[in-house]
Amino acid sequence: MRHRTPVLIAAALAVCTIPVAIGAASQTPPPVSGTTTATATTSSIARFFVKGDWGTGSIAQAAITKRMCARDAVRPVDFILTTGDNFYSPDGRATQATFDRPEACLIRSGLRWRATWGNHDLGGDSTATRLASPRHWYTFTDGPARIIVLDANQPSSAAQLAFLTRTLVAATEPVRIVSMHQPVYTAGLHAPGEVQQRLWAPLFQKYGVSLVLQGHNHAYERMVVGGVTYITTGGGGAPLYPCVRPAPGLVRCLSVHHFLEVAADPTGIDVRAVRSSGTTLESVRVPVRARALSGQRHVRRS
Predict the structure, then answer these.
(1) Which of 48, 102, 114, 173 is surrounded by the fewest CB atoms within 10 Å?
(2) 41-66, pLDDT tens digit by residue?
(3) DSSP states of 234-264
(4) Could you give the domains of the chain?
(5) Burial class (CB in 10 A: 0-12, 13-18, 19+), 47
């Protein structure tokens, strides 16, 4: 089911592959507490785009956006999910050069943004005011999917951990997807998040999260850790980063501009990474995971 909102504002690729490794309004920052929202749909498939590390005003950003609009015209999606670093130079502030001009066709489409907060977004409030994401962590549904957006700028937050736990415990949707900026696992230039690995990854595994979307490293990565698929999608327009380190469960790491097309049904999630030329970088089906020990209690034996 397609969700449209009114227009918010009127107005050669380098490839680096490494082998599989072992195993604008107010100056006041928006609130950071989480909320639970639900979008009722009758569709059995959730369709959306994903891009990260994009708002630079670059030629690459404009090319990716143009391709997204072309794909939406052929097969409409419900919303755009970002993995953060939505606005650069100045950080956190949407401008004509970084948003209104390069994103014009998406703005005209009326597609809803569902944005993740990246480290560059903390310098301003445009992720809240222009992308309509005033909360730093929140959740929503689309068809069979429960999507949870986290703020990896604050991985140690007790309030955020409590929000994540109760959301996963209460989730009844068959598909569970998480989005964040700083990656849990990565082969990229920025190191993986040790706090996320310690606090969040066990919950993803326990409560049946199928897909974790992340940014921060300007590349495309896919890895599977503990049965959970982690995809880094940070190729939305910012300068690309190389693949520099081994990572657990690494399947692919490519330094290339791209966006994702995602289609989630109750049995699996189809993810297609698309170059600005329209060619497919990678296409994969992620299986839906069940909760671990769902409905069971641990029985202590004497």
Answers:
(1) 173
(2) 447 999 999 999 999 999 999 999 99
(3) --SSSPP--B-S--TTEEEEE----EEEEEE
(4) 35-287 (3.60.21.10)
(5) buried
